[in-house]
Amino acid sequence: MSDKLVMSTGNKAVAAAVKMAQPTVVDAYPITPQTEVIEAIADYVESGDMTARCIPVESEHSAMTACIGAAITGVRVFTATSSHGLLYMHEMLHWAAGARLPIVMGQVNRTIAPGWNIWAEHSDSLSQRDTGWLQIYVSTVQEAYDATLMAFRIAEDNRVLLPVMINMDGFLLSHIMQPFEMTEPGDFIPPINLPHAIDVNDPHGYGAMSPANVHYQFRFDMEKSMRAAREVIAETEAEFAKRFGRSYAPVEEYLCDDADVVIVAMGTMGKEAEVAADLLRSEGIKAGVMRIRWLRPFPELNVAGKELVVIDRDYSFGFGGVIAGEIQARYPEAKMARIIAGLGGQEVTFEDMAEFVRSRKIGTEFWFGISEEEQ
């Protein structure tokens, strides 16, 4: 299929990908900095470029509930939210995953109040990491578009049938303008076929009570599907690269083959870290970058023989940075310096990241911007 180069914000790129996927139902409630996604989709519906039923509801909780009701009938469904809106959905995120409904959601990362703040942070989506949703974190407008297209195919694969959350840094990516190739997906996204869809001609109950002797089996089935998602993601990304020429992996590695020290980060910070690695290389420091894209399912990391500088744009109070903690749990032998940076939109440049590497202290946690005496 031919590609068309256009300029767009991350938000509008996600909306353009949704238009290509042609969902039947879009339910959403506006919240900064996500609102532009749903506004663009509403414009597509109004102009006739999409035939979706675009439903404005009274809250994010209702938005996810309406998505569940639509998805149960076996149609393709999309929604979008951010920050407190995601938290308001929390109960229904569990319902969507537990009901094995392949809903796709654009999620624009934003700080949780108080204090009131609309800038980027990953605490909103990371607080939902145990709900059963697949989670991907993107770093460019192109990746936001491509990941959205792939999300529908991955979620709707009968080996998975779990919802997918596409996470994008608020303003740093949601509102920045970049060129990207708009792809006509053709049959890359096959028609949805939900095996347990409700059929009015063959009525069944849904959401009935599950007693203790079967409930754990439902949960294990979700885990099996999360494991199977690794293979489905690999297949989908390989097919996408074959058709459209843009390659992705669960973890994007940059200059890691011979690296002695590797910066680990997600989202736009992970992309910025590549510039830091180039700077460090010019100084004779063998630095690389691992940008984690798929957080759920958690990817395999090549950490053997390398020191890690893990930058968390989040915090689990009383525990530490979430990503550093997840890596340590999976790879207890990993040697890492833990950096907390970028909370609430705090500016973190590639020069700052390079300094994190130069001054790293393995086995410690350091809050960027807080004096060492206070820490």
Itemize the secondary structure elements and their pairings:
Blueprint (H helix, E strand, L loop, with lengths): L2 E7 H12 L3 E4 L6 H13 L5 E4 L3 H12 L5 E6 H6 L1 H9 L5 E6 L13 H4 L7 E4 L3 H16 L7 E6 L7 E7 L28 H33 L6 E4 L6 E5 L1 H16 L4 E6 L1 E3 L10 E6 L9 H9 L4 E6 L9 H9 L6 E3 L8
Parallel strand pairs: 2-3, 2-4, 4-5, 5-7, 6-7, 10-11, 10-13, 13-14, 14-15
Antiparallel strand pairs: 1-8, 6-12, 9-11
Describe this structure in words.
By secondary structure, the protein is of the alpha/beta class. It folds into 2 domains: 3-244, Rossmann fold (3-Layer(aba) Sandwich), CATH 3.40.50.970; 251-367, Rossmann fold. The chain is 37% helix and 21% strand. It contains 11 helices and 15 strands. It has helices at 10-21, 35-47, 60-71, 83-88, 90-98, 123-126, 141-156, 212-244, 267-282, 322-330, 350-358; strands at 3-9, 25-28, 53-56, 77-82, 104-109, 134-137, 164-169, 177-183, 251-254, 261-265, 287-292, 294-296, 307-312, 335-340, 365-367. Strands 3-2-4-5-7-6-12 form a 7-stranded mixed β-sheet, with helices on both faces. Strand 6 (134-137), helix 7 (141-156) and strand 7 form a beta-alpha-beta unit. The longest helix is centred in the middle third of the chain and has 33 residues, at 212-244. The mean pLDDT is 97.
